[in-house]
Amino acid sequence: MTKYIKPESFTWWMSLIPVIAGIIVATADLHGQVALVALVNSLTGGAEPAILINAGLAGIGMRAAL
Length: 66
Known about the structure:
By secondary structure, the chain is mainly alpha-helical. The protein has one domain (10-65). It is built from 4 helices and no strands. It has helices at residues 10-26, 28-31, 34-44, 49-65.
């Protein structure tokens, strides 16, 4: 597990951001932060939450493979 979690790596943080953004959009009904979801949608071009989460996890996986 520690091979995937590298908080000192810039690449790891840049891959974690889409995961967090996807979770924010996916849980919009739970937290009700419409302005935050609108901001994330405008920054990501309205990408689906699953695409954001998968892209982030792929980046973390590729980072661990290197």
